[in-house]
Structure formats: structure tokens, C-alpha cells
């Protein structure tokens, strides 16, 4: 399994890949530049729009008569919004942290019941001021976790009964019981302990076998883990120093899309990893978990 470069995007902080199965598109964000990217694999073309402020994450919304184009839920500094393309219309939904101006949104995605889960972090990466929120399409906003440093990861087991989460500086993947009916989490326990030599655990997805795919910030690799045993199953080199996240996409959910970043890299590091910030793809033989839609 070798990652191919599909877009030499040179993103500052490429993140949050999400596969829109209805429209056959991959979305991803460049957080600090506020760019929302749409990659169309059928044409191998990437288009982006500037949403105007730090853009943490997004999730697709179902195709409907009211939203014939692209419709998303996104997390901006000023809160959760719906966003449509090509109109670029933003509609405000909720703002969990109007009082925490030094925080920004980081990773997020929808749960299998259509709730939008998104986490925050201190943009300066100093305070444990982050939280993880769950926003339901009926307008209910819940705080699932507080005291988070860098909210990352986020995925579910194939039976949806386990939620996996990463607070990057802990070097752990933590599992919780997940109540799909209420969206509540309980019973945290570490399931993967990432050795420092592999890098920092960042974004995460899961496959149909229930294994976890974790992107390694600073580690130039993507890793696959068995959460039942904590065992590292695979470490796949990626020609980008900061590997940030991954998601399964394509018609059979077997194409693994990988985002990366070139934020704060030295000239020496950029010379060693010139493709950092690129978008990569691995054609795997495994089927991944779908990207869940907001309000589905
Ligand atoms: Ca991340």
C-alpha cells in the first residue's frame, strides 16, 4: 500500500477529509487559511472557496430539493453553520464557545445518527481549554468532554457502540461507550498507546474490520491499529512530514484519502518532505466506514 500524491496542495494545515457518497466528492479544509476544498476524483480536479475565517471541520448534508448543490455543516470560529455551494450561503446554527476567543475548532465529523461532533483547542497549543461538542439537528448542543488540549481523532466501531477519540498530547486513543440514541459517551479507557517514535496521533478513521487508521503528525506515516489488543498492525510511510487525517472514499469506500500540513516546517524539513501539505490516496483492499451526514 503506497500513497500516491493526487494534489500538490501545499496546504498550511490540510485537515478534516470527508467523503460525500451522494455527490462523489471529497471535502477537506485548510484550517488557518479558511479554505474549503472540494476534490472531484472523476475529474481529478480540486476547487476551493475561502470561507473567511478559521475553518475547523465539516460534514456533508443529504441531497435535497432545497439544497440541489453542495450542502455542508461547518465549524467556524463563530460557531456551527450550514454552508452551500455554489451559493456560498452561510446560515448560523449555534456557537458553543462565544466566550473562548483564543480557542478554535479542530477535528469533527457526524455520528451515525446525524449529530455533528466537533472539538476545540487553544490555538496557541498551551492551555487545556478545549472541549468536544455534539450538536444535534434538532438544535440540542451537548458538551461531551472538557479539559482537552488538541481535540482530534473521532471515529466509531462498525457496530457504533464504541467511540474513539484522540487528545493528541496524551499519545493515546481513548475508547468510550457510545449511546447512539442519546449521543452520550461513557466509560473512557485507553486502547492504543502511541510510542513517541511514531509521531503524534492526529486524525483517525476506522475500517469495516473495526481497525483504527491514525494519521501521525510529525511522523510522516499513517498507522493501522487493533483497538482490542492495542497492537500496531501497519505503519505506511507518507511523503509528508505532518500527516493530519484520513477518510475512506470512492465508490466502494476502499480509497483512503490522506491530508497533510506544512505548518511551522523549517526549510530543512521542507527540503526533506517537499510534498508536505499535499493530498494523497491509497487504493486499499479494505472497506472503510462511511462519512456520516448531518441530519441523516
Ligand atoms: Ca487534526
Question: Any overview of this molecule?
Answer:
- The structure is a single chain.
- This protein has 296 residues and is mainly β.
- 2% of the residues lie in helices and 53% in strands.
- It is built from one helix and 24 strands.
- It has one helix at residues 267-272, and strands spanning 4-7, 14-20, 25-30, 35-40, 45-50, 55-60, 70-76, 79-85, 90-94, 103-110, 116-122, 130-135, 141-148, 151-156, 162-167, 172-178, 185-193, 200-206, 212-217, 221-226, 231-237, 242-249, 255-261, 279-283.
- The chain is globular, with a radius of gyration of 17 Å.
- The two termini are 33 Å apart.
- The model has no long low-confidence stretch (mean pLDDT 96).
- The protein binds calcium ion.
In short:
This protein is mainly β and 296 residues long.
Chain-wise SSE layout:
Elements (H helix, E strand, L loop, with lengths): L3 E4 L6 E7 L4 E6 L4 E6 L4 E6 L4 E6 L9 E7 L2 E7 L4 E5 L8 E8 L5 E7 L7 E6 L5 E8 L2 E6 L5 E6 L4 E7 L6 E9 L6 E7 L5 E6 L3 E6 L4 E7 L4 E8 L5 E7 L5 H6 L6 E5 L13
Antiparallel strand pairs: 1-24, 2-3, 3-4, 4-5, 6-7, 7-8, 8-9, 10-11, 11-12, 12-13, 14-15, 15-16, 16-17, 18-19, 19-20, 20-21, 22-23, 23-24
Calcium ion binds next to strand 10, strand 18 and strand 22.
Sketch the topology as an H/E string, one letter per element: EEEEEEEEEEEEEEEEEEEEEEEHE
Give the overall pLDDT as a whole number.
96
Radius of gyration: 17 Å
What structural class is derived from the secondary structure elements?
A: mainly beta
Low-confidence stretches: none
Helical content (DSSP H or I, runs of 4+): under 10%
Q: How many alpha or pi helices?
A: 1
Strand order of the largest sheet: 1-24-23-22
Small molecules (ligands, ions, cofactors) in the structure: calcium ion
Give the beta-strand count: 24
Main sheet makeup: 4 strands, antiparallel
Any idea what the shape is? globular
How widely separated are the two ends? 33 Å
Q: Proportion of β residues? A: over 45%
Amino acid at each position: 500500500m503506497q500513497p500516491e500524491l493526487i494534489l500538490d496542495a501545499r496546504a498550511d494545515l490540510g485537515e478534516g477529509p470527508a467523503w460525500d457518497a451522494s455527490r462523489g466528492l471529497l471535502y477537506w479544509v485548510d484550517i488557518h487559511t479558511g479554505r474549503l476544498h472540494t476534490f472531484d476524483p472523476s475529474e481529478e480536479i480540486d476547487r476551493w472557496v475561502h470561507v473567511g475565517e478559521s475553518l475547523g471541520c465539516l460534514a456533508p448534508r443529504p441531497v435535497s430539493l432545497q439544497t440541489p448543490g453542495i450542502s455542508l455543516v461547518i465549524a467556524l470560529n463563530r460557531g456551527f453553520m450550514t454552508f452551500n455551494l455554489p451559493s456560498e450561503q452561510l446560515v448560523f446554527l449555534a456557537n458553543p464557545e462565544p466566550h473562548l476567543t483564543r480557542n478554535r475548532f479542530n477535528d469533527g465529523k457526524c455520528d451515525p445518527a446525524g449529530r455533528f461532533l466537533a472539538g476545540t483547542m487553544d490555538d496557541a497549543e498551551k492551555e487545556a481549554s478545549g472541549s468536544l461538542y455534539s450538536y444535534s439537528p434538532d438544535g440540542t448542543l451537548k458538551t461531551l468532554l472538557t479539559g482537552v488540549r488538541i481535540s482530534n481523532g473521532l471515529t466509531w466501531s462498525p457496530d457504533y457502540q464504541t467511540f474513539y477519540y484522540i487528545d493528541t498530547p496524551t499519545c493515546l486513543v481513548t475508547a468510550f461507550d457510545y449511546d447512539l440514541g442519546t449521543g452520550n459517551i461513557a466509560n473512557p479507557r485507553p486502547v492504543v498507546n502511541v510510542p513517541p517514535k511514531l509521531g503524534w496521533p492526529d486524525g483517525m478513521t476506522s475500517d469495516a474490520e473495526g481497525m483504527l487508521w491514525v494519521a501521525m503528525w510529525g511522523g510522516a506515516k499513517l498507522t493501522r491499529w487493533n483497538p482490542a489488543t492495542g497492537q500496531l498492525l501497519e505503519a505506511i510511510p507518507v511523503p509528508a512530514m505532518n500527516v493530519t487525517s484520513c477518510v475512506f472514499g470512492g465508490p466502494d469506500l476502499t480509497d483512503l484519502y490522506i491530508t497533510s500540513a506544512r505548518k511551522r516546517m523549517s526549510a530543512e524539513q521542507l527540503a526533506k518532505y517537499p510534498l508536505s501539505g499535499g493530498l494523497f490516496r491509497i487504493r486499499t483492499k479494505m472497506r472503510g466506514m462511511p462519512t456520516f451526514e448531518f441530519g441523516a
